[in-house]
Amino acid sequence: MRVLFIQHDHVSPAGPIGERFESRGYSIEYLQVVPAASFGSPNVPISLPPASDFDVIVPMGSPWGVWEDDRIGNWLLPELAWLKTAHEAGIPILGICFGGQLMARTLGGGVSPAPSGEVGWTTILSDDPSLIPPGPWFQWHFDRWTLPPGATEIARSTRASQAFVQGRTLALQFHPEIVEESLRAWLLDGGMDQLLADGQDPEILMALTAKESPAASERAFALVDVFLDRVAIADPVL
User: Fold this and answer.
1) Per-residue pLDDT at 119
2) Catalytic status, residue 218
3) Known active-site residue 177
């Protein structure tokens, strides 16, 4: 079994999500869209493999917006079309943050800047805690989606929809893959300015993340399990 992780930048490790796919017997392949050398000019071309080569697809986060066609359209628009083809073929898709927003737009919803960002560990309201527990989950986003027609919203916070299901796609607004090491990489690669602009203390957030990482990893493992055991085998509703 093969799973493709689409990493849109150079600081998006799969973390415990990748670990759990491996423990479930999946061979992981990675596609990095924007290399580190192109981070400042991210409108690079993309070469996507046949979606049918994979049993699961996991589009991950990004510092850019799903609505920024002018800025990243060279790869954003082909990826949206590719994900639509994959979804319609019944290939399970687990979209994480930007990846979840990609799926919202792919399936006919919308994505736009939110009135305010959401950064840090957040407990969310879930209609189905067996699928999406209340967390806390790590948030780092400044955009939000509107639900696609026919999608079932599973969870939300006071600032944004947090999860929806449509067919074999599960879209998440939060980051289940984040642990202490990945947050440190984000802060060292541009995230520090965003965090300070949000009025937060980086040392406190790092300390909270270090404390939360073991439990967060367990929640990520359980999330992969329920995705594979419930969503990935559901009827492939288009």
Assistant:
1) 93
2) no
3) yes
Whether the CB-CB separation of 17 and 179 falls below 8 Å is answered with: no
CATH code assigned to 2-178+216-231: 3.40.50.880
Q: Catalytic annotation on 175?
A: yes
Which stretches of the chain score pLDDT less than 70? 237-238
Give every CB contact of residue 126 below 8 A, 6+ residues apart in sequence.
132, 133, 134, 154, 155, 162, 163
- What distances in angstroms separate CA 170 from CA 50, 59, 155, 166, 211, one per listed residue? 21, 11, 11, 7, 27
What percent of the chain has pLDDT above 90? 84
In the chain, what are the domain boundaries?
2-178+216-231
16-47 per-position pLDDT tens digit: 999 999 999 999 999 999 999 999 999 999 99
Of the chain, the end-to-end C-alpha distance in Å amounts to 23
Task: Return all residues near 108 (Cβ < 8 A) that are at least 6 apart.
Answer: 148, 149
- Reported as a single tens digit per residue, the pLDDT across 187-204 is 877 788 887 888 888 888
Identify the three-state secondary structure at position 76. helix
pTM: 0.95
Q: Which of 97, 118, 141, 212 is catalytic?
A: 97
**Residue partners of 40: CB distance under 8 A and separation at least 6:** none
Other Cβ atoms within 10 Å of 184 Cβ, number:
16
Helix (H, G, I), strand (E, B) or coil at 25: coil
Looking at residue 131, its amino acid is L
